[in-house]
Amino acid sequence: MGKTKHTGPIKLPSRPDPKLWVSKMPFGLGKVKPHHIRDTLKVMAENRDNLPYAYRILTQGVCDGCALGVSGLYDQTLAGPHVCTTRLNLLRLNTMPAIKPAVLHADIDELRRMDSAALRKLGRLPYPLIRRKGERSFSRLSWDEALDMIAARIRAIDPKQLAFYLTARGITNESYYAAAKVARFLGTNNIDNASRICHSPSKTALKQSVGIGASSCSYKDWIGTDVLVFWGSVAANNQPVSTKYMYAAKRKGTRIIVINPYREPAMDGYWVPSIAESALFGTRIADDFYQVNIGGDIAFMHGVMKHWFDMEAAQPGSAIDHAFVREHAGGYEALRAHVLRQDWAQLERSSGLSRARMTEFAELLAASKSGVFVWSMGLTQHRFGTDNISQVANLALLRGFLGREHCGLMPIRGHSGVQGSGEMGADPFSLPGGEFKGMDIPRIEGIWGFRLPKWQGDIVGVTLENAVLPDDHERKLKLFYTSGGNFLETMPDPDFVRTCLESVDVRVHQDIVLNTSTLADAREAVIVLPAMTRYEQPGGGTSTSTERMVYFSPEIEGPRIGEARAEWQIYCDLAMRVYPDRAKAVTFKSAYALRAEIALAAPNYDGIQHLKSKGDVFQWGGAWLCEGGVCPTKDGRGRLLPIELPELRKPEGHFYITSRRGKQFNSMIYSDKDPFNAADRYDVLMHPNDGAKHDIKEGDAVVLYNSCGTFHGRARFASIATGNLELYWPECNALLPKKVYEPHAGIPEYNTAVVMERADTFHALKDSRYVEKRIAELDLESEDEDHSIVK
């Protein structure tokens, strides 16, 4: 942990800098870009029935969107107000009225005709619901009936047949903590959260490389660092307020580099709406793009390090910070030997970049005295995601970019609540205060007042698979309790996921709205429990940002929805119904009492018990973790790890695909058009050369297929690395393989290989022998790959 404290927000320069302008045409007229003013007016119109409440949420509450951590309209990075369209789009979830009874209790097929966007617009869930096997509609339950029914089912099954899952949709630390405690109170370690499908490899890799499970630095370190690298992260789209930090960094002379297969328009130039100069003329963000192949990052980083070691041979000290490595990192010689064995031709094939480009980036980093590496799902959502992040950590350790100002490793979070999920113990591998392995279990048991189950819980993907096990299997999933989440739209192979969901005896959906997963059948019953938002929670709630700022969001005066209850209270009430004789262990008089226990159970969160008013915040760990290069590992040193190059072979005519986000928040889609490139949800982004090679013109109907499924879309030419395709998520999920997980962190594989053909060719040649032959060619490439399932 660091001793240096965060020094608070800084001011932006007052004078404009025309060198950074995207265009002299005011407001980017004629360019494809977000229309912030129009979108803001649209949000105002949507919330016109509740504008005073909407205003109070924006000015008093902590953002329930991404994890930048905006409290009211302000944060700890830059002075002045901040607001973004992502937050505005989510606003209606908090202000809309309840679903009308006639719609809520309509025939299930009427509801199933709607997609999740239409279901969301119906309104909030007003009271508990049930739909038993064979019933055509939901019927109303009392809270007593619902909780007693769930409790009776829990008592009747083995705890290994019970599982919990929590999304990151506005969920507070208090809810994560209560769920983590209740799950263990009920005897199960099957509890997981949304980080499993976004940043679980980040935590795993950072733990093994430098001993931490969170960002080592603060957003302020972006502003004035020599080089700021975004690796597989489109922060301008997913964390829009961060563009303000990028603007400030550019004004300080920071070079911004983007490493991504697609030259993301949002990172090329952006019109920051809360900065007059940028709102008028835009801001050039990225100084350079390195367009790696999908899955080619490890090879690219090997090339960077290989050139560094060549530089060192010619002139010692020209690339490696030897003093830092000597004092603070182990494994240097083993890493050096491993990297020098790499073949340049293979690194070029795998990365998709020339040796010259790799050495260019290596020399940029070598000449930089400071650097911050930021990454997101472009690095983590691979079957080798942990290795990707370990390789980034190798670069930082070799250059000494750790534990000091303007330096650090930052897995930027896309949800406001997800950083706290594992830290509160809502994770099969973690408890409050640390990981199960190596944890002082008796200490937690003393605080919690009961014995913990000691068996290893399952990650959520395996939990879903357990639903199709034989009935007499000890891990057959019989009761699945989810707080938010929509697995039909977030997991690979939606058809298989539907089979899993419908094979569970009882599913409980604790949520604020309906989604498509809620409408799936169950073997016995689907129970729906209405939850409060974070702004309705009595006693307020807290959330942890990417930079480890723990913010207090107060209860905000306004209308309340029917019988909705605070999420943490629902968990505790259920536990008391299951084992009333031991209820004292899970009884909290208030949110304040709950936070007091969090401070005891999770030592990093000592201070959370004092958060009680609007604007209250503290940063656990100080401004920089690993301050001075000292890591919280057994020997206080980081570990340089030799990382193997993934085998990425694909036959001629095949492509790698990855997913991208448009105008959406997680799986919640707000527009069919991507505001940054005008593509629609079924466009396939490809390089023009790939189109010409396959006689595909822009706008042509194309078919992508593999052994998992088929996708029909239209060709859209874009600046993307050749041999790579980008599709929108979750529309492309039918192509993604099921049961393929990263072996260390358990994240599903969200990238795969496909055959792409013109639609008329595909349909003209579509006979079983032809398709099977093409798919067989695809499958050959992965025969030797490790498709491990985490158990």
Automatic annotation (TrEMBL):
Keywords: Iron, Iron-sulfur, Metal-binding. SUPFAM superfamilies: ADC-like (SSF50692), Formate dehydrogenase/DMSO reductase, domains 1-3 (SSF53706). InterPro entries: Asp_de-COase-like_dom_sf, MoPterin_dinucl-bd_dom, Mopterin_OxRdtase, Mopterin_OxRdtse_a_bac, Prok_molybdopt-oxidoreductase. GO terms for cellular component: membrane. The lineage of its organism: Bacteria, Bacillati, Bacillota, Bacilli, Bacillales. The keyword Iron applies. The keyword Iron applies. Residues 124-575 form the Molybdopterin oxidoreductase domain. Residues 656-753 form the Molybdopterin dinucleotide-binding domain. This is FdhF/YdeP family oxidoreductase. GO terms for molecular function: 4 iron, 4 sulfur cluster binding; formate dehydrogenase (NAD+) activity; molybdenum ion binding; molybdopterin cofactor binding.
